[in-house]
Design a protein that fits this description.
By secondary structure, this protein is an alpha+beta fold. It has five domains: 2-100, Zinc finger, CHC2-typedomain (DNA Primase, Chain A, Alpha-Beta Complex); 111-238, Alpha-Beta Complex (DNA primase DNAg catalytic core, N-terminal domain); 240-357, 3-Layer(aba) Sandwich (Dna Topoisomerase Vi A Subunit, Chain: A, domain 2), CATH 3.40.1360; 372-437, no CATH class; 454-583, DNAb Helicase, Chain A. It contains 25 helices and 16 strands. The strands form four sheets. The chain has a five-stranded antiparallel sheet with strand order 1-2-3-4-5. A five-stranded mixed sheet has the order 13-12-14-15-16, sandwiched between helices. Helix 20 (454-465) runs antiparallel to helix 24 (527-553). The longest helix has 27 residues, at 527-553. The chain is globular and about 100 Å long.
């Protein structure tokens, strides 16, 4: 990940960003010793176990093991990608993004973006104010008629576009925005000899991102006007492929176990009003990979709940394929009696909603696979077995696989062995994709260690402290390959914060964070002796392993080989005694 930005620039960012100040904006911290402590924002706790090390620019929770640098903290709290978090911090620090430093057009585009976002914000305020005016009562009545109360209307910032030709355009021009800016923002349609508001006589749904910026709008027409829903076209600040409706609410809902993906704005608003959290909708398009990756930041599992018609079912299959591509667990949530989510929650309430059970992706696809087949004849059962085998190639959990195989043996009449042979015709898609993408990270070739010695851990702490005599610690001193790689980076000049910036997985980041926040008290006076003691302990461990290997094989040796082994055993034993005596 760090390769996206110049290393020197990232190092400067890590150095300038005060992690205590950044974290304090989210978590109250108190200094205790050399660290700051507070309640962990990533899990519920009553006793502070979340620590911040200002000198190393790191955070670590001794409870849930979450850890990282200042950029990764912003990633987690704001639900941003690495790049977005870096840019977020860079803006706060007034640092130019590297690729923009030589771009003469950057200042203009940055200013334009700010103007368009401000125009959208003012438009949202104006639409919301219009909703409460007597002349727009029909639009407010429509929202009330859909079961929305005033609190929900305000929570989502819903508004009204009057049945007038250019009311919004005139209002924003009076605030100093130009026709060109309003056209770029998608608020005004500009023809050769005319201009008019994009949204007229519609209920307005502001589209707000996770950072609270109004990017665009959706408008629901009154009466029989088509299209019924109209959305802002792509603009310099809005791309419908990359966002979801109600992303701003996801950011506030921590600890979500699932996100519900629905089709319409009203579905989202109605479910949220009735107490369902984690509900979003796509923005007038089929689900995209970009949207799937966005949702993955907030929750490990998605429940897809689209309409029950043919178009909705095809959209579900496509969505499941995209979630599988992005390695996201997905299920399908059906609402009974062909009701959409909005109708169901209003008619039957939250308790009925909570009783609904979603289908696993494979279970849903297996049901779809038999819809046009007659399982009462051999041809139908054979085709169903083939389709099912292809679907099951994507199932990873053995228990889940066993359940489906048991079901299919009954439905098709084919044995488990035959079905497994059919599945083996080609490699599982998910495995094939992982093999082809070849995801690699800075520590490739070295698996996370299950154990490593305390001596190695203390040596890492000594490297970080800066008190170890120069050249006294070498990468070769470490026995664990993974820890040796970390040592190489530190010896080569990488900071702890930069080191964590190279991590690709939460597991790796947590493990390295645990190493880098060692509680060892190190100072200039004791550092040299600590280095010597650690190196001696590592040598003793190596010798002990060598002695064990010799002792296990010495009885099998003959003649000169046995004599040499005995001599080596004696040498090792003598050297071990010398080192132990020196350490006392």
């Amino acid at each position: 990940m760090a390769g996206r930005f110049p290393t020197a620039w990232l190092d400067e960012l890590y150095e300038r960003a005060d992690i205590v100040q950044v974290v304090s904006a989210y978590v109250p911290l108190k200094k205790n010793g050399s660290r700051y402590w507070g309640l962990c924002p990533f899990h519920h706790e009553k006793t502070p176990s979340f620590s911040v090390n200002a000198e190393q620019n790191l955070y670590y929770c001794f409870g849930c093991k979450a850890g990282g640098n200042v950029v990764q903290f912003v990633q987690e709290m704001e639900r941003l990608s690495f790049r977005e978090a870096v840019e977020h911090l860079a803006r706060q620090l007034h640092m130019d993004i590297p690729e923009t430093q030589e771009d003469p057009d950057y200042a203009r585009r940055k200013s334009q973006r700010e103007r368009l976002l401000n125009a959208n914000r003012e438009a949202a305020k104006w639409y919301h104010a219009q909703l409460w005016k007597p002349e727009n009562a029909r639009l407010l009545d429509y929202l009330h008629g859909r079961g929305l109360d005033d609190g929900t209307i305000r929570k989502f910032g819903l508004g009204a576009a009057p049945d007038q030709w250019d009311a919004l355009t005139r209002a924003l021009e009076e605030q100093g925005y130009t026709q060109e800016e309003l056209g770029l923002a998608g608020l005004t349609v500009i023809k050769e000899k005319s201009r008019f508001d994009m949204f007229r006589n519609r209920a307005i749904f502001p589209i707000i991102d996770a950072q609270g910026e109004v990017l665009g709008f959706g408008g629901r027409a009154m009466g029989d006007v088509q299209p019924k829903y109209l959305n802002t076209s792509d603009t310099p600040v809005f791309n419908k492929r990359k966002g979801v409706y109600a992303a701003n609410l996801l950011k506030k809902q921590r600890g979500l176990k699932r996100i519900i993906l629905v089709e319409g704005y009203m579905d989202v608003v109605a479910l949220v009003q009735h107490g369902v959290n984690g509900v979003v909708a796509t923005l007038g398009t089929a689900l995209t990979n970009e949207q799937a990756r966005l949702l993955k930041r907030y929750c490990p599992e998605i429940w897809v709940s689209y309409d029950g018609d043919s178009a909705g079912q095809h959209a579900i299959v496509r969505a499941l394929d995209i979630f599988e591509q992005e390695d996201i667990s997905a299920r399908v949530l059906f609402f009974p009696d062909n009701l959409d989510p909005d109708e169901f929650i209003r008619q039957r309430g939250l308790a009925a909603f909570q009783e609904l059970k979603p289908l696993r992706a494979a279970e849903y696809l297996l049901r779809r696979a038999q819809e046009d087949l007659d399982l009462s004849d051999d041809e139908g059962r054979m085709e169903y077995a083939k389709r099912s085998a292809k679907i099951l190639q994507k199932v990873r959990e053995p228990v889940e696989m066993d359940r489906y195989l048991q079901m299919l043996t009954v439905q098709t009449g084919y044995s488990r062995e035959v079905l497994q042979m059919q599945m083996g015709v080609q490699a599982p898609i998910a495995e094939a994709r992982r093999a082809s993408t070849g995801i690699r990270h800075p520590y490739r070739g070295n698996q996370l260690p299950k154990t490593y010695s305390e001596a190695e851990k203390e040596l890492i702490a000594l490297l970080i402290s800066g008190f170890a005599p120069e050249g006294s610690i070498q990468a070769e001193d470490f026995d664990t390959p993974y820890i040796r790689t970390i040592a190489e980076k530190l010896i080569g000049g990488s900071t702890p914060a930069a080191l964590l910036g190279m991590c690709e997985s939460d597991e790796e980041r947590s493990e390295i964070s645990r190493l880098l926040v060692a509680n060892t008290e190190i100072n200039d006076e004791n550092a040299a002796k600590m280095v010597s003691d650690c190196l001696n302990r590592i040598r003793l461990n190596r010798m002990q392993r060598q002695i064990g290997e010799l002792q296990s094989t010495i009885n099998e040796l003959q003649g000169e080989q046995k004599t040499e082994a005995v001599k080596e055993l004696l040498t090792l034993t003598t050297e071990m005694k010398r080192i132990k005596d020196a350490m006392q």
